């Protein structure tokens, strides 16, 4: 059970409120994880800047969701797995690929498999990739700059995953059907 408050715009510290407003506009709601993050204006403001850059990068939204879902599974964050499962399906990932990621397997789609494998490997090896790890990613049609861009997605995702694991926010009703346990 969480002892962290899930803030609303009205209850959040003043410096956290603009971010909560942005997230409400983006999602039509304030995700509970953001409500928990809002306790720390430093954290939520740092997160939103990175979050915005990640979504303005070279990856498609479906590719970003592949990365985010893989990170959530690898970091065993139940809230983030439920949330990113729903978003991945909304962004057009095949349900079989989503289920593969949730089961800690690579998706069938070659590019999504390369993204999922690279991000899982980055977490498991704590960033110590070898030439084969990078080579498999490049062979799937990505470039060296995108290896580094995966790190940005991983950083944003790690913030969310760790906040979820520390604060244990409840999973919102729209994502209840996507619950997951490590």
Notes on the protein architecture:
By secondary structure, this protein is mainly alpha-helical. The chain has a domain of 118 residues: AhpD-like, CATH 1.20.1290. The protein is 63% helix and 0% strand. It is built from nine helices and no strands. The longest helix has 24 residues. It is globular. The mean pLDDT is 94.
Q: Quote the distance from N terminus to C terminus.
A: 17 Å
DSSP summary: helix tally: 9
> How does the major sheet shape up?
none
CATH topology of the domain at 61-178: AhpD-like
Number of strands: 0
For CATH, the homologous superfamily of the domain at 61-178 is named as: AhpD-like
Strand fraction: under 5%
Class by helix and strand content?
mainly alpha
The SSE order reads HHHHHHHHH
Mean pLDDT: 94
Poorly predicted sequence stretches spanning 5 or more consecutive residues: none
Rg, nearest Å: 16 Å
CATH class of the domain at 61-178: Mainly Alpha
Shape: globular
**Second-tier CATH architecture of the domain at 61-178:** Up-down Bundle
Q: What level of helicity do the residues show?
A: 55-70%
